[in-house]
Amino acid sequence: MNQEPHTTKHFASLRAAALAALAQEPGGGQSLDQAANDPTASVTSLQIGDWYTPDYHHLDGGHDNSVALRAAIPFELGGINNIFRITAPIITEHPALDSGLGDITVFNLMTFEESWGRWGAGAVALLPTGGQWRGSDQWAVGPAFGFTARPSDDFLFGLFNQNLFHVGGEQALGQADVNVSTFQPILNHKLGQGWSIGFSEMQIAYDWEYGRFSSLPLGVQLSKLERFGTQPVQFSLQYEHNFADSQIAPSDTIRATIKFLFASR
Asked: Can you give the pTM of this predicted structure?
């Protein structure tokens, strides 16, 4: 008796189940489409981005480019969900710094599910891997906090805060101690068919050494989630303008990123 039709249906069912699992929530009733734009989501990811600054405030002809590598790894410790994230910038062009690996930033966030969304608390650290020629040449650590609220699967908003305070290392030439707080507003809306729009990865930065905002960006991101076989990949394009113009600082920034997503279940 020929069993081929039954076998074909069986494999088709398995494939459908696998694709459905990819679209299901990584935690807290959240779809993978939305979790791709949520820094508190329990989704393993690997992101490669090209960050380009075409111009600077108070610096004619100044521009820079870097390749940013970022990995996020969720894990459970003592019954508490955690997210470990590392960002390593590779400077390819800069008006003042050498090319090569810059300062690496790592953080670990403990996350807690709520009926309205998710919140988290943890610590962040700056590693002086760039030395004095490609970074601050300082060690810095501090607390990190964040939350995301999900009124619906189509809408996400929240805030993520990181604080870095100097704990060791020498100041690079012409630089003050690293004592800075950054705030990342989160806003994203799903448009359908894998498309979404929202805020860019803009970091509002307050420099405690100088008592002023060193970065006041406003930016937008357009992203598209695609699946190549069973592998979800998000492509995004970002643009932001920095309104803090009292010093030499990036004026405009363009980011193009690709993020490979691996749902943790």
From this structure: 0.83
